[in-house]
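Running this now, will post back.
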Amino acid sequence: MDGAADRTADRTIADFWFDPSCPYTWITSRWLVEVEKVRPVEVRWHVMSLSVLNEDRDDDPEDDPEGYLWVPVRVCAAVRHHHGQEALGRFYTAMWTVEREHDDWIGSLHDALEAAGLPVELAGAGMSTEYDELVRASHAEGVALVGTHVGTPVVAVTGTGGGRVAFFGPVMSRIPRGEQAGRLWDGTLLVAGVPGFHELKGPPHEEPRLG
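Update: finished.
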């Protein structure tokens, strides 16, 4: 067994399904990045889509009649298909950290691709249906773990013993740091791993603090 395999065997895998346009999901993703610093956890990145989740609904909870939310998730799917999940993680980080016009929206996809060291031509995937089936397949994989009653993100945690726990969220308006992030991780796994557990909610949402 090589060194990379040894490191993976010693770590808990957190598969993270995300729609890249959601600011609360971005906060959850940064929590997981913090968790990687204080717990033996490795995050693996997957796409899901609010557009796919809501396409059969009579209402439009995302207020996206023009389908703009398809654009970033298609580019994410293209990045993962051609360059792998680690590149997707880099790109996702760049989407929310390159300069942007609005605090609650992602920046230029071209700039994010360049910042992540990826071909800027992949931005063209956003206006194409070429990667839609990949988006749908990845979305279906994540949602199947918890059900269509939830949104983004979905986390599936595989421990070193092979057992798996999946859950939606957690939804937060600020990013836990350091050991606070680690304690939230420990508690989330404890609660989500209880047989028969379904839901836990806090106070109403605050505006997300993205930094």
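Residues 1-6 have pLDDT under 50 and may be disordered. More later if anyone needs it.
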